[in-house]
């Protein structure tokens, strides 16, 4: 894995019948450079997206415990593969946080990709605002 990028909606989203925000919309980009070409990773390993309560700096993430984590096997994530408006391959998902409701005005998201025999790839942290009306 040469690049793992996580993009998220700038604010939390309301999914289903809820009256309050209850999730986040994300796009996960996984790429590998081979023979001078950049190719999308087919998602054979495991993906985990961690959500932390609050807007955390990179240095604080090592000591922080995720409020919620979504885990996907390569088989589980395949249905989310598509293309963004620029034509780039990405996994686009709407993720509900369930009972793990954030208490801070923002959450920090980090994606992790692990494939057998390879070092873990970690995205840069992405902060999403939680706006409650």
Account of the 3D structure:
This protein is mostly beta strands. The protein has one domain: Immunoglobulin-like. Helices cover 6% and strands 46% of the residues. The protein contains 2 helices and 10 strands. Strands 1, 2, 3, 6 and 7 form a 5-stranded antiparallel beta sheet that branches. Strands 4, 5, 8, 9 and 10 form a 5-stranded antiparallel beta sheet that branches. Strand 8 and strand 9 form a beta hairpin.
Helix content: under 10%
At the fold tier of CATH, the topology name is: Immunoglobulin-like
Unreliable stretches: none
- Order of SSEs, N→C? EEEEHEHEEEEE
Strand portion: over 45%
Amino-to-carboxy terminus distance:
40 Å
Question: What is the C-level CATH assignment?
Answer: Mainly Beta
The counted number of beta strands is 10
Question: Mind telling me the CATH superfamily name?
Answer: Macroglobulin (MG2) domain
What would you report as the Rg, rounded to the nearest angstrom? Answer: 15 Å
Q: Give the averaged pLDDT, no decimals.
A: 89
Protein traits:
133 residues, mainly beta, Immunoglobulin-like, five-stranded antiparallel sheet
In short:
With 133 residues, the protein is mainly β. Helix content is 6%, strand content 46%. The chain is built from two helices and ten strands.
List the helices and strands and how they pair.
Elements: E1 3-8, E2 23-34, E3 37-40, E4 46-53, H1 58-61, E5 68-72, H2 74-77, E6 81-83, E7 89-96, E8 106-114, E9 121-122, E10 126-129
